[in-house]
Amino acid sequence: MNQKRLFIASCLALLVTAITFAIRARIESVFTDDYGLTAEQVGRAFGPAFWGFAVAMFAGGYFIDIVKTKSIIWAAFTMHLVGIVLLLMAKSYTSLFVANVFIGLGNGSVEAACNPLVTTLFPDKKTKMLNRFHVWFPGGIVIGSLLAALVMDQLNLPWQVLVGLLFIPLAIYGFLFFGQNIPETERVTTGVTYKEMMRNVGAPITITLAVIFMILVATTPAIADAVTSSYSLPVIIVGIIAIAIIIEGRMVNKITLLFPFIFFCMLLTASTELGTTQWINALLADNGIHPMIILAVVTGLMAVGRFFAGGLIHRLATPGVLLGSAVFSVAGLLLLSIASGPVMTVVSAAVFAVGVCYFWPTMIGVASEYVPKSGALGMSILGGAGFVATSMVLPIMGKSIETAGPQITLRNMSILPIILVFAFTILYMLVKKKKEA
Asked: Which residue ranges traverse the bilayer (predicted)?
């Protein structure tokens, strides 16, 4: 087993995933200006990039140990290849939608396979190497943004040239994985049964049904309108889900509810990070500096922070890192809500970047470290749920920006990391108590 080669291949696969996000942001106007699609049609055609990601992660989590890690990796490569080819030929709503279905499924398959692969490759430093692996998501967005500006804005080349550049990292990661001995997941190598993995998720049936319901809300306007028709209905739904999780986890599976608690936190961390960055253009359009520069600052700092996460995790432990991240996220969002000039905006964005920097990989690391028997399924559930939560919060933020304005929206978004400050304080105490026991 070539540990270094497999890790580099995984990073390049995630790089392809990240660049697709940057490319979509740049070619959005092409389909409205050149092909006559409305902004709503383009938004719906881009939707599979999010829910397809979640579907692939859930499917991968449930079946990776049955079909083997190697099969999920090559499924990701194939779907990436087909998706890129279809995107190059897309000129209508349907063709753009189908292309994003394949790309979304490919992106989700990368995470479903490579997160557990990284923890298997580095069993003694899981969270550190997961942060190193996830450097390539913000890093890829920076690279993709720079490539988009160079190819389309500076060289005035067709958008197909920009999309075609994806074939380069795709071919390299395919070559690096080809012929390699790819190990099975940590669950398999340590002898944990599939049934035990399901049990350690706490309430796998309830959590899966909850995420399916979230996907329906995110993709079906009629269901979304029905759910948000009153203030009490969402609270009632959340209450029913919480009760079902307690019944399934404590009464049926007779196990700690630590994983469902981490799952709840993941919904908030992902929404804080991805919701804000996806709306960065509308939120900061009037702050005297190009929003794409702010996005580059945020994602650039995130990449650097994740690369050097090892020392911080060693000193503070993963719950401590998450608690500090939540505090910085609150401060960053509140500062952005009052920022009025270029300098203040950049400083506020930097504080926010430090806050959200460690959220995603460290949340997956917490599950891998403290609920290790949840295996690949646990990591996939967290990643998939994070993207579904983002797809739900995006329209809510959009409506808030239109009605209340960017400043109020940013201030309201700070409620999510405020909740996380309390949640991660509880997690810190739970982990400390568990270690002492």
From this structure: 46-64, 71-90, 96-121, 133-151, 157-179, 200-224, 230-248, 255-276, 288-309, 321-339, 345-364, 376-398, 410-431
Which range marks the domain in which residue 88 is found?
Answer: 1-191
Contacts of 169 (CB under 8 A, 6+ apart): 12, 15, 16, 19
Query: Closest Cα partner for 56 from 393, 376, 395?
Result: 376
Contact 363, 262 (CB under 8 A): yes
Radius of gyration of the chain (CA): 21
Domain count, the chain: 2
Question: CATH no. for residue 177?
Answer: 1.20.1250.20
Q: How far apart are CA 368 and CA 266, in angstroms?
A: 14
- My answer on whether 143 and 284 are in the same domain is no
Check: CB of residue 294 under 8 Å from CB of residue 280. yes
Q: Read off the tokens for 263.
A: 């799952």
353 within 8 A of 301, measured Cβ to Cβ: yes
pTM (predicted TM-score): 0.82
- 3-class secondary structure, 231: coil
Summarised one tens digit per residue, pLDDT across range 165-215 is 999 999 999 999 999 998 887 777 777 788 888 899 989 999 989 988 888
Is the domain of 255 the same as that of 146? no
Residue pair 326/417 in contact (Cβ under 8 Å)? The answer is yes
Do 56 and 8 share a structural domain?
yes
